[in-house]
Model the fold of this input.
Amino acid sequence: MKKSIGLSFTLGLGLLLTACGTGSTADSANDLKNGNSNTSNNIIENTDVVEEEAKTEYTVAVTNEKDETISIIYYPENKQEVIDIDGQAHNIEVNVESNLVWMTINPPHGDHDDSDDGHTHGNDDHNEDKGHAHNNDDHQEEKENGSTEKIVAYDLNTLEKVEEYPVGNHPAHVTLSKDGKTVIVTNSGDNTVTIIDRFNGESWDIDTGDYPHGVRISPDEKFAYVANMDSADISIIDVELKKEVDRVHVGDGAVQTGFSHDGKYAFAGLHLEDQLAVIDSESQELLKTIEVGVGPVQMYASYDNEYVIVANQGSEESPSDTVSIIDIETLEVVEEIQVGLGAHGIVISKDSQYAFITNMFEDTISVLDLKTFEEVNRIDVGASPNGISIN
Done:
């Protein structure tokens, strides 16, 4: 269904946040010419300054769902900014091109029957809204009457909200095209995804399987793969045609999708089967499932196409605390590393140096060095950290 939507656009003034670590180098040419005995020391010291200047810094965005906040973390400086959100921010994605961070917003804690996403227990309690999958006009009326179910975007420079769009019932995950023009949102309560064209203000609601949750766009940007938690399958959406073109059975509790960055494989975390499903992107067929830790949720592939890493959450009653590292060439688990309780969301830096993992049940994120396979930092954040993304 195609429709036009109103854009609530607000511009706020805020403090421009800049990276630290700037310095200057002395001119050692005169020292060499004049035979200064300290020249060699100066050269060493100046080299250290240059190396300090070149050190990569990462901006990591985290949704603290129960706090109704998001954390913006500057790593390795470990500076953290906290933004209050008018509702529960569930999932999040940074768009590098626009320097905006997008998130799905649900009603504040206590105002909604489903205060979490069903990862910690069975999914039967999510079935009551499924009759609305083909009745989006009702949801549009709710949106116009002030529903808090929406997606919003914040500017990473000013940390001010700059865009807002109404979406469907119980929005879960959000993802964007690389240019930031196309926004795709899963509406778990509607059994739909909403595709929004930010440039012309139009949107389309597309039917999926039961309880669509995680979504990511393929590297070639032709398809969006949607994990349907209650129908044990993946909806494949043609982004240009705005319709579902295939549905692939993968297994129970399909909670999130992902891709190898060469586009060869798609992945799906099977939370109820303790497995990672591997799909051939070209044939769009299930290749195999891989046994991982307990209660896997999100996964992310390294940009060097060496590994895909799976966050094993378990349940709130029996939390898991590991990530499974899978060799992309062999599609076999090569390491299982302990992190925090309830490992849930995961993102990898574009230099393939670090993985950042949200630990839902201890309110932290773990920083994993992918060169040594060691946890090198654990950072306190807000209550129930869920989604995570990186600039």
Residues 2-20+84-390 form a domain with the Methylamine Dehydrogenase; Chain H fold (CATH 2.130.10.10). The chain has three helices and 29 strands.
